[in-house]
Amino acid sequence: MATDEERASDIEALRELIRTNRRRLNQRQLQAAKYGIGVDPSISIEIEDLTKEVAKLERELKALGG
Q1: pLDDT (tens place) for every residue of the chain, 66 residues total
Q2: N or C: which end of the chain has fewer CB atoms below 10 A?
Q3: By C-alpha distance, which of 55, 46, 60 is closest to 13?
């Protein structure tokens, strides 16, 4: 069983990962909007991957009570 200090540390680490991934996601979404239909497929794929990753991290954070 994790101590309160470990749990708080885990929650903060997850929050930082979520912030970082959201920043990357926002930048990729801006790029996609700029290029429209001509957007590089790798950008679209990364948007999809980052969206899934943020959702997964948010579920983990919720499970920890953060």
Answers
A1: 668 899 999 999 999 999 999 999 999 999 999 999 999 999 999 999 999 999 999 999 999 987
A2: N
A3: 60
pTM > 0.70: yes
| Distance from the first to the final alpha carbon of the chain | 17
Domains held by the chain: number = 1
Q: Which domain does 13 fall in, by range?
A: 1-33
Residue 43 lies in a domain: no
Give whole-number Cα distances, 58 to 2, 39, 45, in Å: 19, 28, 20
Q: Does residue 27 fall inside a structural domain? A: yes
